[in-house]
Amino acid sequence: MEPIVWTDPVFWPWSGVYAGVVVAVLAVLWVVGRRRPGSIRRPALAVSLGSALVYITWRVAFTIPEDNLAGRIAGIVLVVAEIVGLVQLAASTVIGWQRSERRRPTLDALSSIPSVDVYIATYSESVTVLEPTLAGAMGMRYPGTVTVYLCDDGSRPAVKELAERYGAVHLQREDHSHAKAGNLNNAMAHSTGELIVTLDADMIPTADFLEKTVGYFADRKVGFVQAPQAFHNEDAFQYNLFAGDMLPNEQDYFMRTLQPGKEPFNAVMYVGSNTVFRRAALDSIGGFATGVITEDMATGMLLQAKKWRTRFVPDVVAAGLAPENFGDLLTQRTRWARGNIQTARKWNPLTLRGLTAMQKWLYTDGIIYWHFGIAKLVFIVAPLLYLIFGIPVVHADVPSLVMIWLPYFLASFVSMNAVSQGRRSFTWTHIYEIAMSPTIALAVIGEWVGFSTKRFAVTPKGVSTEKLNFRWGLALPHLVLLAASVYGLLNAYVLNAGSFTINSLVISTFWTLYNIVGLTMAVLVCLERPRQRATERTDVSLPVAARLWDGAPVRGQVLDLSFSGARIALPWSTAFSTTDATRRLLEHAELDIEGIGSVPAEVRWVSESTDALLAGLSFGSLTPAQSIAVMAAITASPDWVRHDREEGARMATAAARTLTGAARRVSPSLRSELRVTARGVAQLQAPGIAATPITVHLEDLSYGGARIRSPRPLASGETYDVTLGGSATARAQVRWVQRRRGRFVAGLQFDREEPRAS
């Protein structure tokens, strides 16, 4: 007997009216939302949840196959996965229903200024990653006592030397048990501050970090305050998909949308960094939680079970490095997934005494979330069961699907945009989850069946690479699923055409095409672009006086700044012309940057533009005071932290950029010699040979070499005396030669002796 569907005569009018009303309401909300985004949040959530309930009722009551045992089992598994999604939608509705509008207390709210200990936890991170964080911490403004501790679980002499140079306290321990949590507990045993700040090794605080967080402790019941983790580099999705200008960081939705939504329920999660604790609160639970690899989630939950209040600070007061390749991102998320399950085993939120019903639900929902990998694989495999094996998983016709599923899908799309405030769309959520699902699913299953790990793995940061790298191991599950999807369509339309019912075929086809788009993007994410910069640059606008040549400094602007260098522009003027720019550059330049002071630097490259001379410089050895000043200038820039909104983030654009970018030749790292665009001619004379000099045209010039255009071929390895400007000569060797439009372009390398007058 055929199952009842909502397009049967008895249901047709009602389903048509229902679909029409929902779509009309969504259309109105969409139009209003484009003008006033915040105004449609609650209506959109209500429509989304209501349409989800209608959809899941229809799915359970009418669409599970009955004639085929395999189909019935697969259909039930699919419905269970959808019910789990509905439970999470309900939790998201509760979180997004109201915004936290609590006032932001300042230090003036305190009756007395508490002492503060700052813990920077480190194990294997490099000094180049640690130093900017330490400089930021040492530069925090605060009217009370602040002591900074470098909690070094790697016991490294270089880290101890770094701490001593900055005046911080270096802590290490012989017993490295309990990883990061044990490291922090050891710091508690060696410090006495009333408040404790935890920072990851790469999370650089702003100068006003304490000014914007400590005031919350005027409420004596506040146990900790959590600020969002933000990032000043591009994550793997942004970078590998050439989408940094379109996409926010993948974590921004949780950090800046869901976290503040949990504050009214006293369920803000401790996320391991950018947090200030009351020492008395930590003492009440015996310090940071141990025995799990996500000590942060467990610690926050235990404090809330003890009735300590928690607050969310909406301001970005610290930012760090997102995992810089897709493999490291998956390593980090695997740790989080396993850690959540470990925490549920040790401190099940549903049975933990002291938590409210809402806290129990929200923490349980957070644990369930990490099963998205399994659910997403179910959604990918389900239509393939029909296309490849003929096993139906959904018994419905196309009109029913349009009437019931489409309103639910559209409502989810609109409500996600409304709740996330532009930080996350339904489409990109699909891509993120598909990309991570195989790895996360395997980790979660492994954790539940007993293949558990208690070992804490540090996520690599500050990594630079020179080559394009396709991560075959990470892409393999997606390639297999992609191939299976293509084969399923080929089987249904070519190999066994005519063997499938039209309704199930249409539904499975569109479902599979939707999955193919996500799988394709997941494969593209596995194409790791090279990262050649050692440190991230931040756009700034700071006046500078630069002395790159002998003579008076030239005034200009710093265009971007990093902890290790700067890019500057020196405008052309009557006092500074292109003639000045052709002088020999100093080996050690000097910069006097407003707000930072005088810093030593070396010129790495120069280039002429119409309006100015552009130069890239690397800093020499800076004093701690100079480093603190540089870090303060960087963190004060409004462009330090990347934007947190999707801006024209179209999948087609990202895919096209990725494919064309991968096809381009990957340029090598910056030349070790600085080069300036050069105009004019030079003379090449073979030493010891009385022959007519060769007149060549200069293309660029540096102290170490030049690129020239020659009317006749030169041989690689030949040596010439080069006359520049009619007077200065230098010995040079031809390093390479290329033919270009009837002429020959060659690279010359000068010897390292001083140019001599002819």
From TrEMBL:
Its main location: membrane. SUPFAM superfamilies: Nucleotide-diphospho-sugar transferases, PilZ domain-like. It is an enzyme of class 2 (transferase). The keyword S-adenosyl-L-methionine does not apply. Keywords: Cell inner membrane, Cell membrane, Cellulose biosynthesis, Glycosyltransferase, Membrane, Transferase, Transmembrane, Transmembrane helix. It is a multi-pass membrane protein. It is found in: Cell inner membrane. It comes from the Bacteria. Residues 532-627, 671-754 form the PilZ domain. This is cellulose synthase (UDP-forming). It comes from Antiquaquibacter soli.
